[in-house]
Amino acid sequence: MELSQAIISGAFGIGVAIVTWLLAGLRELGVSKREARKQKQEKLESLYAKTISQLEMLIRLTESRDSYDQIKRELSDNNGMLRLLASAEVNSQLEKTSVLIYRWSTLYRKGAPKKTGGGMAMITSEDSKYSQEAKDLYPEVNKAIVELIDLMKIHIAEFDKA
């Protein structure tokens, strides 16, 4: 009798240990999945913030007629990360936004007064035409950026729901 009770007690103890081990493993798995999701969300937030900053920098560089050389490499690296991590909707809107910014910046620079010697600038009637086209296109550029930011916010919020 004592032997059978000892066997039952031992089996029960082993069973409890196994169940505890399995539950701890499942809990750890859940924690690690949540942690991985949180890390991806933080990476996306950082990437999206950097993207917004770069778009604003492009606009400022265009308006000041500075060179894009200082930001070219950053843009390429950032676009590569976006292609890998961003949602299809964000990438699609980014493409539309990039095309609009390119059109706007080209018109803006064509319409800017041409620098001549001695700190002087010359404005031609052709410049005014391009300048007005750039001015007309700017609200569309701004709207595209706002839509892009909204899509980024939606994508980030999906991590909170999961």
Give the topology.
Elements: H1 2-63, H2 69-85, H3 88-111, E1 114-115, E2 121-122, H4 125-161
Distance between the termini: 53 Å
Tell me roughly what share of residues is in helical segments: over 70%
The tally of strands reads: 2
Number of contiguous helices: 4
CATH topology, what is it called? Four Helix Bundle (Hemerythrin (Met), subunit A)
Order of helices and strands: HHHEEH
**Mean pLDDT over all positions:** 86
The major sheet is characterized as: 2 strands, antiparallel
Spans of at least 5 consecutive residues whose pLDDT stays below 50 are none
In percent, how much strand structure appears in the residues? under 5%
Provide the domain count: 1
SS content category? mainly alpha
Give the CATH architecture.
Up-down Bundle
CATH class: Mainly Alpha
Give a verbal description of the structure.
- The chain is mainly alpha-helical and 162 residues long.
- The protein has a single domain, classed as Four Helix Bundle (Hemerythrin (Met), subunit A) (Up-down Bundle), CATH 1.20.120.
- Helix content is 86%, strand content 2%.
- A two-stranded antiparallel ribbon has the order 1-2.
- A hairpin with a 5-residue loop joins strand 1 (114-115) and strand 2 (121-122).
- The radius of gyration is 29 Å and the shape is rod-shaped.
- The mean pLDDT is 86.
Brief synopsis:
The chain is 86% helix and 2% strand. It is mostly helical and 162 residues long.
Descriptors:
162 residues; mainly alpha; Four Helix Bundle (Hemerythrin (Met), subunit A); 2 strands; 2% strand
